[in-house]
Amino acid sequence: MLPLVLLAVLAAAAAQNESNPPRAPSPRREQFRVIYEWNAIDFEWDSPADREAYLNTSQYIPKNVLISGINFYGENLFVTMPRMLDGVPVTLATIPVQSSETAPKMRPFPSWSDNTVGNCSALQFVQNVEIDKNGIMWILDNGRVGTLTQKPDAKCPPSIVLIDLKTGKNEMERIPFPAETVNIKSTYLNDLVVDNRDGDYAYITDNSASDPGIIVFRRSDKKSWKLRDAQSMSSANDAMLFRINGTTVSLPVNIDGIALGPQYRVDGDKVDRKVYYCPLSSFHLYAINASVLRNENLAGKGEGALRPFVTDLGTKASQTDGMKMDSNGILFYGLIGNSTIAEWNTTIDFHIGQRTIARDTNYIQWVDRFTFDDKGNTYVIVNRLFNFVKNGVSENEVNYRILKSHTGSKSYVFAEDLAVSDPSGSTVPQSAAVVPTLGASVVMVALAHLLV
């Protein structure tokens, strides 16, 4: 009997390998190392007098400037500074990818005037940006400033702002969201992914305290809609408490991080993708098909319409803020309470496929966002957000870091495009996150029987 079982195991493994060829060996990994760090964020001012004037009028309060989002294009890293508190003169800026300085000053992007508070032609509150494969920057502008103050101020309508970086002109195209999609007083446009198919879509997390959901924006006709699922998009009671290096903070934050998986074929010629997301205050990771989110009719059916299409992939060791998918379906994310950077190969079951790739209680205190450059490097923002929200920022110590590691990765926006049918007639697996897992599970079960 034993030889027959072993033969079955080998046959299952062979079938799995035939339908799902193994990935190329991963390049040699480097440890994450600090490339930039700041006690407080400063800027490239037009003159020392301007800096002094901003300080004197409290338009610049150094300890109130937090870095959050990060993205790469050309020779620059784009960094966001959401205006959660007063005294943040710039909400989007650049720093060089390579610099001789360990704490480079931020250069306002597109310009100083394009970051003017109260000017609705300028950027007001940018939490995150994405840059697609065509060099278009997608900017989430909440329009509301002072979100951590007693009186948040909705200066301008929540909008998506587009800039074609290829031209070098940095002209902004602003598309305000309609009132039926977002509430100007409660929406919080947190993060986004861009799907360059069928007219370009963005899937956006809105972690509004009163109405969390995923906003879908279609660039071709500038139309948007919002989908909700309270069970998977709301904070969980057992995950609201964060413990980091001896500090405890309670944060009931809804849907936050979002990532977009590689394309895969369904029904022979159709193409779909998995959208992964999680509330900040949750231990679970969820997934839904992009094709479901694109169905704007579901948006009008209210709570419960999305529930049958949501998959609970399982739990993580701790809560996660930002996450990022690479072009091969590797998800990078932080585990906040563990001071850890982790990854998951989406071809492996989530329960067994998670892997720690960096841990340091001193240098990895609240992983926020990730980005990839064009040389295989991964960058991570670490910002000690728990300290910031408790008003515990001290300019006598390092508060913000950017870490870097050569992982051989490139962004999901450069993943293989399956929109055109394969001339040979062959197809790829039904789902990169499901089919390989099934084969691996068969082998594991058989091996378990052998060991027994």
TrEMBL record:
Assigned keywords, A-Z: Secreted, Signal
UniProt cross-references to InterPro entries, sorted A to Z: 6-blade_b-propeller_TolB-like, MRJP/yellow-related
Entry annotated with the keyword Signal: yes
Residues making up the signal peptide according to the UniProt record: 1-15
Pfam families (UniProt xref): MRJP
Localization per record: Secreted
Gene3D superfamilies: TolB, C-terminal domain (2.120.10.30)
GO cellular component terms, semicolon-separated: extracellular region
Domain of life the protein comes from: Eukaryota
Assigned protein family: Belongs to the major royal jelly protein family.
Protein name: Yellow-x
